[in-house]
Design goal:
Layout: H1 4-11, E1 57-63, H2 70-84, H3 87-90, E2 93-99, H4 107-117, E3 124-127, H5 131-140, E4 158-161, E5 167-171, H6 178-189
Parallel strand pairs: 1-2, 2-3
Antiparallel strand pairs: 1-4, 4-5
Amino acid sequence: MKSPIAALLLLVTTLPFGHGPAKPSAGQAANVFPGVLAGLVDQYGRGFDPGSVRGRLVLVNFIFTGCGSTCPTQTAHLVQLRRTLPAAVRDRLTILSISVDPANDDPATLRTYAKTMGIADRRWRLLTGSLPDILRVTRAFAAIRPDVTSQALHSSEVRLFDARGRMLQRYSGAPLAAAQLRADLMTLSGARA
C-alpha cells in the first residue's frame, strides 16, 4: 500500500502552497514559499536567502525559545528524527524553525537555543526578523490567528515542502507524527527503509 505522501505526489502538479487543487486565497501569493521568508535572519545573523532551499526538501515549523512545553519537545523530536534519517535523505533536507517571538528571539538567543537543543547542522536554520516580517510570515502560513497576541497560541504543525517549493503535507507537531514524516521523507528521497 502506498503512503499518503506517495499518493499525493501523483496528484500534485504545480501547487506551490496548500492542500489540493484549490487556488490560493486572495491574500496569498501564488508562490508563497520560500519567497515569503525574504527579510528574515538566521541564528548567525545572516540574511535568509530563499534561493538557498531551491531543489531541497524543506520542513517548516514555528517556535519561540521561551516556550516551556510544545516547542522544545517538538524540536527534540525533530533532532531525533533527523539523526535517524539516512545520510542521503539528510543531505536533501533543510529544516526552518521560525520564531514567533521576534522581540525576544534575536540571533544570539536562537544560537543558544540551537546549542541547548543539540542542533548542530548547517541545514537547520532558526529564523527571526522584525515584527512586521514575522507577522507577514505567520499570516502567509496561517500559523497564528490574526486576533491572537500570545506566542503560545501559534501552530504546532510541521509543514513539508518538496524540492519545487510545493507544500505537500502538514503533520501534527504535538506530538510529532515522526513515523509518518520519516516515511514520507524516505519516499520523496527515493531511499529504502
